Automatic annotation (TrEMBL):
GO annotation (BP), single: small GTPase-mediated signal transduction
An annotated Gene Ontology molecular function: Rab GDP-dissociation inhibitor activity
Domain of life: Eukaryota
A GO CC term attached to the entry: cytoplasm
PANTHER family: RAB GDP DISSOCIATION INHIBITOR (PTHR11787:SF8), RAB GDP-DISSOCIATION INHIBITOR (PTHR11787)
Protein name listed in UniProt: (apollo) hypothetical protein
């Protein structure tokens, strides 16, 4: 991705905005990856912006409750079943240790994949890090960030 930036003479601020605000990359490692991946991400952002209006994000317009709703709609398009607020007793595993469904009493709902909060399967997850997002208004520069344009 660095090559197109250089070819078109984009300054560092524009590169940072494009990579982090439009393509939503968390760090600069994408600069060493094929440009087509970034182009696809920017196109998705642009298509979402064109679809939803002032923001490419549903939750800004309709609240956080719209996120599970959008997943439910997408699931329906691809013939999936989306189960909301359905209590369960356990996630049923196949012989190979992969999820094959969820069980509530004698009823088993079969599936190819289970997506759930880590609290449902504490023995199958391990914490690798933590994301903290906040807005801070400071009256001084932040120490030890070198020449980073955003932190």
């Amino acid at each position: 991705m660095q090559s197109p930036y250089d070819k078109f003479g984009l300054d560092k601020n524009t590169q940072d905005f494009t990579g982090h605000a439009l393509a939503l990359y968390l760090d600069d490692s994408y600069l060493q990856q094929p440009a087509i991946q970034t182009i696809h991400r920017i196109k998705l952002y642009s298509d979402s912006l064109a679809w939803y209006g002032k923001s490419p994000y549903l939750y800004h317009m309709y609240g956080l409750g719209e996120l599970p709703q959008s997943f439910a709609r997408l699931s329906a398009i691809y013939y999936g079943t989306y189960m909301l607020d359905k209590p369960m007793d356990e996630i049923v595993l196949g012989e190979d240790g992969k999820e094959v469904g969820v069980r509530k009493e004698n009823e088993i709902s079969k599936c190819k994949q289970v997506y759930c909060a880590p609290a449902y399967v504490p023995d199958r997850v391990r914490k690798k890090g933590q994301v903290i997002r906040c807005i801070c208004l400071l009256d001084h520069p932040i120490a030890n960030i070198k020449d980073a344009l955003s932190t």
